Amino acid sequence: MLDVVGHPLAALVRGRRPGYSLDAPFYVSPEIFAADMEIIFGHHWIYVGVEPDVPEPGDAMVVDIGKDSIIIVRDDENRVVAFHNVCRHRGARILHNEKTTVGNIVCRYHSWTYDLSGALIHAEHMGPGFDRSCHGLKPVHLRSLEGLLFICLADEPPADFDDMARVMGPYIAPHDLRNTKIAFQSELIEKGNWKLVMENNRECYHCAGNHPELTIPLFAYGFGFAPEDMDEHERANAHRYSCMVQERHDGWEAAGLPSREVEHLADRVTGFRTERLPLDGEGEAHTLDTRAASKKLLGSFKTAKLGALSFWTQPNSWHHFMSDHIVTFSAIPLDADNTLVRTKWLVHKDAVEGVDYDIDRLTEVWQATNVQDAELVGFCQQGARSPAYEPGPYSPNTEMLVEKFCSWYVGRLADHLGL
């Protein structure tokens, strides 16, 4: 447990200036990184994957969060459950591959064997008084939000997950994530602190000059603007966009597709935000021609022109749900200077590669965008290490959600430290 008495983190938390980027130690200090892993990633709901990662009983996935390694497995009752990847004999790591299929969970070291419920069912040479029931795998809290998997490493997880699920379930359910498959997964190590990765995601101030692919399907007015800087023509276009969003929301909601913004990024322990927004061009998907990337639509959708539903969670995820495919992102801290960004593209489980979809076309917008973002995050990490760095002001028109992320983060530290 972090010793907070006299800890310099407490002074940094107290001194954080709202509306400005964080002080440099928040981005570069190994000690603060360790505190982040304990306070943020050790006590909050962390997005780690999707139910299609483990589609059948016996399918297992390993996710590493800092020093913790977690087994996520679908059991014989078709439930998705999670355990610490640590044998109860002498602590050996049990599963070593990211994805595998098992009948039982067997430790290679001394063949201690656990069933898919985590119970120890076989342990040779332990004597007549040995009680197997006391040595099952240690469970990890796991919740599925319409197929999105979240774990919490704390003994007592935040209790407000149900509130998020109640709100978000109707938004996500029509996309029927449980009946999708992972068409492609990428893993990219960004050379920056995890908070810089998340800050970069929480704004599109940088998009116009850095994301030529992403800005094709996105409307320029969808991510904030400064009316005082616009001429009459630009203000008219912004007004038309606002009217279009309202009209689309009315139509989507009338058709049973929740769409309007819900924003709780800074005022809840389990912070989140969602909104469905129209897409430019054909309005179907995040593709270069703005048309659906898969011929087989998700759920019971009859039209591809449903824009894109965005869903963000604190501290480490963002997701885009379209009529034909879903893209999910998780940011996993590696150390103070490096973050793993894991991206999954999901299509209907019956879609056939090369017939219904092409991998390159499905992934090209976000593959390019991820690489571009990684470079930008690297620039910020380099700058944060400079003696010349000092916190700079966020744009109130386009970086308001970055401020909400930082406010949530500092607030969670303050709560844990008792400040």
Automatic annotation (TrEMBL):
Residues of the Rieske domain: 47-151
Q: Which InterPro entries match?
A: Rieske_2Fe-2S (IPR017941), Rieske_2Fe-2S_sf (IPR036922), Ring_hydroxy_dOase_asu_C_dom (IPR015879), Rng_hydr_dOase-A (IPR001663)
Keyword flag Iron: yes
Name the Gene Ontology molecular function terms of this record. Answer: 2 iron, 2 sulfur cluster binding; iron ion binding; oxidoreductase activity
Q: Does the keyword Oxidoreductase apply?
A: yes
Keyword field: 2Fe-2S, Iron, Iron-sulfur, Metal-binding, Oxidoreductase
Q: Which organism encodes this protein? A: Pseudoxanthobacter soli DSM 19599
Q: Which Pfam families match?
A: Rieske, Ring_hydroxyl_A
Q: Which CDD domains match?
A: RHO_alpha_C_GbcA-like, Rieske_RO_Alpha_N
Under the heading SUPFAM superfamilies, the entry gives: Bet v1-like (SSF55961), ISP domain (SSF50022)
Cofactor(s) essential for the protein? Fe cation
Identification of the protein by name: Rieske 2Fe-2S family protein
Out of the domains of life, which is the source? Bacteria
